[in-house]
Amino acid sequence: MPESLLEIRNATKVYKQRGSGGTRKDVVALQNFSLDIPKNPASIITIAGESGSGKTTLAQVILGFVRLSSGQIIYDGQDMSNANPAQLKNYRRQVQAVFQDPFGVYNPFYRVEHVFNTVIHNFKLASDKSKARSMIEEALNIVGLHGEDVLRKYPHQLSGGQRQRIMMARAYMVKPKLIVADEPVSMVDSSLRATILDVMMRLKNDAGISFVYITHDLSTAYQIGDKIFILYQGGVAETGNTVKVIDHPKHPYVQLLVSSVPEPDPDIKWEGEITLPPEEEMRSSVNSGCRFYPRCPRRSNRCLEAQPSLYHIEDEHDAACFLYESVPGGKPVPAAKSALETT
Amino acid sequence: MTNQDKQKPVLTVRNLCVYYETPKGDILAVDGINFELFEGETLGLVGESGCGKSTAAMGILQLVVEPGRIAAGEVILEGKNLLGLPEEEVRQMRWVKLALIPQGAMNSLNPTMTVSAQIKDVIVAHEGRHALKDIKPRILDLLATVGLPGRIVDMFPHELSGGMKQRVCIAMAIAMNPAVIIADESTSALDVVVQRIVAQTLLKVKEQLGVSMIMIGHDMGLMAQMVDRVAVMYAGKIVEIAPVKALFADPKHPYSQLLIESVPSLRERKPLRITEGITHDPRNPPPGCIFQLRCPHVMEQCRQVAPPMRTNKAGQQVACYLYDQSEDGELIHARVAPGNT
Q1: pTM value?
Q2: In angstroms, rounded to a whole number, what is the distance separating the alpha carbons of residues B146 and B90?
């Protein structure tokens, strides 16, 4: 078993909500999620799913913005819920973030160099100006930019792709072990997305930085991702090797998702028409049974009785669906008792 | 040209120029675009952010606001040049002849009005006062056309999901049975499954009503699924217009080639195609071809005079010196040595 960089064990996040008439409606944003990122080799782990599937909650949990309702985050052998301040500081340095909106993260009054100067100052990375300058240049070069082209510019003078690459360079400066990238390409033009994906690949291969790549776009995940988790309403629907999962999706939701990606080929059209059940039915089966039940074309009564656990389909490929319960040699992947059942 | 001669254009755009005034000179957001929209067809207008595709839509609808202005051009709808008409006449044509589904349509609904009140607004603005009970059946019909249940008619926008709001906007756009609908990035903020539902709704509505549509976007996958022809825009100019199959099978302009190659595939893992964004100052485009600074095939003549638009028999038009027209009207690779003029 290779040593873990980051291990998430049975992470559950429940947002308490008060419904009308004093009834409590809890929203389970993330349920019983487990993830293990090895130290070596660096890898790109994709978290995919639709809005409300819990992918951003997971990013916030990893970054420490949101506390878990139950479960553990273990970084380099240390449980972060009882880490001391020095360990926390080290964690915040080694786990960096790149966010979705490349327009909102900049202060429009400052030149681009301010972003880098702040990092250097906060983490005391350089002792003098020329050393700082060469560090900035190195970070910019790795994302394919040059200091003299961008440092004296204001954010509005750069394209979305350039701004996002500068954010990657900023994260790279502190030499992190892991970058949590929350939808880093969704607001960037499709023709410029490749530049950002390429930077992620290079940081992974050359600098040994792992990524948690959060996206709703399966095609970019397919191009760069190693392992993928596809979430549906807070739970994992399917997980495994990215190519295996996308080439041969097993869970009915993932099959629907993959077939809905518009194919860039006018000769291959969407097959059949799909409809969604009314909104109120969509989340009705939250506490009992499979959450995809209202939309599932292959549902049975069994699916209402219990939530399917992850079943092993083949090497590096698991799906949470009773259809695969009896796959030869298949057995449920052991998971701790759901936090929902215990509380 | 045989293919096009058979069809009747509903909307003709000629030399449309929309400029934004800045203290350092005009930004040439849309700089002389020409195209025709034929009856019943869907034309895709694609290009990266900042290429002027949304501005072109605003120019066609005459909704350009300060500091922008329509500097030149003609927009001919059913024989009338909209750019010559007084504002009141143009206002009457919007929704009725020419409807817009705006970018981020889901945020363009009024949060304080119910769905029925918003749709009623459109009808009342053009047909005069109606009691709500008289037009309610019509509103329910519209909702049914876009696949929404009647029960949402008295709901407020915040009670609806993104895909539902988007479809309410489509219902508003078809309320007056327009000849042309312009859909500006109408599905770009949605999840793939919901995007597919909204896209299917648009296609169905288009077929039922026989309306012509301009679809603006940068998702080439969606374009392949939905449109009949594609116009590729770069920095304010249209560089290629082609039937969708021809564009994907044989993109002619180097920029179209780049756009199509940069679409990430779900079928094979391949090396990523890296490219920069628009590189020149939009106030001072270089003389000659607009794409010269990023073009891998740039030649001396590209830096002097902009290439003319050439059309082949299948209706593929391209503005690039790499191609010559043969005697039988095909576009063939020009034999120009690099550096020659």
Answers
A1: 0.85
A2: 27
